[in-house]
Amino acid sequence: MYAVDFQQPKTLADAASMLASTGGRPIAGGQSLIAAMKLRLSQPGTLVDLSGIADLKGIRKDGDRLVIGAMSRHAEIAASDVVRSAMPALSSLAEGIGDRQVRNMGTLGGSLANNDPAADWPAAVLACGATIRTSKRAIAADDFFKGMFETALGADEIVATVEFPVARRAAYAKFPNPASRFALVGVFVAQAANGSVRVAATGAAPSVFRVKAIEAALAKSFTPAAAKGVKVDASGLNSDLHGSPEYRAHLIAVMASRAVAACM
Predict the structure, then answer these.
(1) 258 φ/ψ angles, rounded to the nearest 5 degrees
(2) Distance CA 29, CA 222 (A)
(3) Backbone phi, then psi, for 68, in 5-degree steps?
(4) What are the domain boundaries of the chain?
(5) Given this model, what pLDDT does residue 2 score?
(6) Of 20, 65, 97, 169, which is most buried with the most CB atoms under 10 A?
(7) What's the CA gap between 153 and 77, in Å, rounded?
(8) Are strands 169-176 and 159-165 parallel, antiparallel or unpaired?
(9) The pTM is what?
């Protein structure tokens, strides 16, 4: 590690101002950033700690939307009665992230801002058509994720809350890396109140993406067989020691079918 200036603002406005004036980095749970700093992959001169900002916390149901504060930790979301009642798929997803330490420190907002290619939360946010509200604006999920570790966030912009439309039914299924518990492939399926279906995959490509072919199949027949019968295009998918693009394409259809089965 190396010396950094550590700031602890109490309001969202103060945090945004500190980021703008110092060119520093916000830190939420630190589960990704601290590891990157230890490896010298990230060397911010200033860290702006978001943990003391009350406006970034809390979980509530607001009409037909579930509103989760960006500093809500994975373990809090997993244990929340509000989440379990409104959208149990989100509770289940949070419960399957990493290990106990990661779940007790990592946050929803931190995961989205980091946009790791194999993170779980981006799949839920994109599949549900959620809205990410920041210190400056509201960003639709379809516009938020731009590429590997890249989002629409500006340098001094902070994720404040995430608004999930309450789905008619939803589920997440992933094939985890046995060591890291990151998704080798994870698929979130959500059927909205109006019956429309969205499907998002993580771990399979440089960034989370919607699987339009499976969406179309499920719009016609919302069954595990319909999802599993789709031949997913392997073009642009990841290739590494864990699996080829073709293997990941196959897993997308399999995980989608399992998610649909869980919905039913």
Answers:
(1) -70, -40
(2) 37
(3) -120, 125
(4) 5-49, 168-264
(5) 73
(6) 97
(7) 23
(8) unpaired
(9) 0.95
Q: Thinking of the domain 168-264, which architecture would CATH place it in?
A: 2-Layer Sandwich (3.30)
Cβ-contact 76, 51 below 8 angstroms? no
| Residue 172: closest CA among 222, 120, 214, 129 | 120
Q: Which CATH class is domain 5-49?
A: alpha beta
Closest alpha carbon to 185 in 133, 232, 251: 251
Ramachandran angles phi, psi of 166, nearest 5°? -70, 120
What tokens appear for 262 in the block?
A: 């869980």
1 pLDDT exceeds 70? no
* pLDDT tens digit sequence for 170-204: 999 999 988 888 999 999 999 999 999 999 999 99
**pLDDT at residue number 256:** 98
| Whole-number average pLDDT of the chain | 96
Residue 3 burial (CB < 10 Å; 0-12/13-18/19+)?
exposed
Locus of tokens 């500190």:
18
Q: What is the 3-state secondary structure (H, E, C) of 96-124?
A: CCCCHHHHHHCEHHHHHHHCCCCCCHHHH
Largest alpha-carbon pair distance within the chain? 57
Q: How far, in Å, CA of 175 to CA of 219, rounded? A: 24
Kindly give, in sequence order, each residue whose CB lies less than 8 Å from that of residue 48, ignoring residues fewer than 6 positions away. 7, 9, 15, 18, 19, 22, 24, 25, 26, 27
Contacts for 206 with CB less than 8 Å, ≥ 6 apart? 117, 147, 148, 236, 238
pLDDT for 62 equals 97
Judge contact between 87 and 172, C-beta under 8 A: no
Tell me 23's DSSP state.
-
Query: Among candidates 178, 180, 131, 184, which has minimal Cα distance to 159?
Result: 131
